[in-house]
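YM 10:42: F-actin-capping protein subunit alpha sequence, as discussed on the call
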Amino acid sequence: MEDISIEDKVKIASGFLLASPPGEVNDVFNDVRTLVDDDKALESGILTTLEEYNTEQLITVIPPGLDYEVIVSKHGKVDLDRYLDPRSKKSFQFDHIRLVATELKDHTEDLPIEDFRAAVETEAHKYVNDHYPNGVCSVYGLDENNIAIAIVDNKYNPNNYWNGRWLATWVYNRETGALKGATKVHVHYYEDGNVQLNSDKKSDSTVTFKEDVTVTAKAIVKEITTFDKRYHTAVNNSYEELAENAFKGLRRALPLTRNKLDWNKIMNYKIGNELSQK
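YM 10:58: structure's back
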């Protein structure tokens, strides 16, 4: 690394940070900090990278004065380092390096299509609270025709060497009825190894806008619910296929006994008995 310039080191560090698994960006930052060995250059050079990572990964934070988590999203950016919580109609300053929210204050600007946005927010929160154990949701009014729905659920278990995140962003245009979504799943398991699941799926559907905003809001959330169920089922099926076929294909054709292993009688083997006792 001695022959690499500080600028190139920062670029390499930025790439590592953007690829950070859920809940591990601080660990990655501490590692690249050692490699770069120049805190001033690192902090100034990766600030944009951290902002990109945090907003794309829908990082959550509890601003002072609020008692619930808020999503840090590009759809909620109102100033250089300030983000909107549309639920409370307040904005807060966010430190992308330290992941801390400060200076909560009223957002005085008029919010576009607020009645419609609030109706979607109500239905979206019901859905997230019912289906996501640690889910957080924010609904943003983008302009006179568009709203954005951000959903994220994080599950961190570093003591058992795994972390995971489900995140989704949906944009609805009430003029055309177009509902476009992008959902991503990222899981990292790293006990005695390094295994990651990276999956993403896009959706493109239509929901007719009704004058009764509650009716439209329910229809939008119903479409999201249907997509999530299909995607969840597809991921589960992929795991079953992986366990039943791919993993078996990676095993030895013949064990050391030179006899084929009968998978249907695994419990009759000594190793099977040992595994069942653990």
